[in-house]
Design goal:
This protein is an alpha/beta fold. It has one domain: Rossmann fold (3-Layer(aba) Sandwich). It is 42% helix and 16% strand. The strands form two sheets. Strands 3-4-5-6-7 form a five-stranded mixed beta sheet, sandwiched between helices. Strands 1-2 form a two-stranded parallel sheet. Helix 3 crosses helix 4 and helix 4 packs parallel to helix 5.
């Protein structure tokens, strides 16, 4: 749903061979709609919960790779916004993303004679500057930005490139109502939506543009219907 569904629709306007959707909840109507948009593309669905152990993810990926032989791009897009659910927010927004990425390296890593691949991780503008009333959610998105930047720098070793797309506040069910950390601001959703936002379709259009640009290490900001490359300031370097 939301950004994910609209982005899938935009992708189907392109010259794809396959679109594989992994989600915890099956939505037959949405899958049927996607299949009808472009009958030339094979759209398939597999049930998947990103919070499962890496071994289970690897098993599922083996099934998918056996069927398709080649996968070019992995989009990590699962996310929740509820700072009452601290452990689950971290598990879905960050740990699941890391584990799914780690699992696909078994098939892509050039050190294992893999072909390489492309990781597109969905972050958030809160990964740059937090919505301080939801520090757990914002913290996971900052972690996604950092993790993805590291993947990009590891590309010469692994053959796998990576970048993030970081939407601004988008009018989806995710932001209609959500809990702040320790209820520090019960009206956080209402106050947030009082400011300018963007519709999911505008975000999805720029999302696909970012995928087509395919810039390793890019930090894309998708806000208010615009696509902008964010330049990250280096305040420290490990030197190795």
């Amino acid at each position: 749903g939301g950004i994910g569904l609209d982005t899938s629709k935009e992708l189907l306007k392109r010259d794809l061979k396959n679109l594989v959707i992994l989600d915890r909840i099956k939505n037959p109507a949405a899958i049927a709609e996607l299949k009808a948009l472009n009958p030339k593309v094979c759209v398939t669905f597999y049930p998947y919960d990103v919070t499962v152990p890496i071994a289970e993810t690897t098993k599922l990926l083996k099934t998918i790779f056996a069927q398709l032989k080649t996968i070019d791009v992995l989009i990590n897009g699962a996310g929740i916004l509820d700072d009452h659910q601290i452990e689950r927010t971290i598990a879905v927004n960050y740990t699941g993303l890391v584990n799914t990425t780690t699992a696909i390296m078994e098939f892509w890593d050039k050190r294992k004679c893999g072909p390489g691949g492309i990781i597109c991780n969905i972050g958030s503008v809160t990964g740059f500057n937090a919505i301080y009333q939801v520090p757990v959610y914002s913290g996971t998105k900052a972690a996604v930005v950092n993790f993805t930047s590291s993947l990009a720098k590891l590309a010469p070793i692994t053959g796998v490139t990576a970048y993030t797309v970081n939407p601004g506040i988008t009018r989806t069910t995710l932001v209609q109502k959500f809990n702040s950390w320790l209820d520090v601001e019960p009206q956080v959703a209402k106050k947030l939506l009082a400011h300018p936002t963007q519709p999911p379709l505008a975000c999805a259009e720029n999302f696909v543009k970012a995928i087509e640009l395919n810039q390793n290490g890019a930090l894309w900001k998708l806000d208010l219907g615009t696509l902008e490359a964010v330049k990250w300031c280096k305040h420290w370097d490990s030197g190795i």
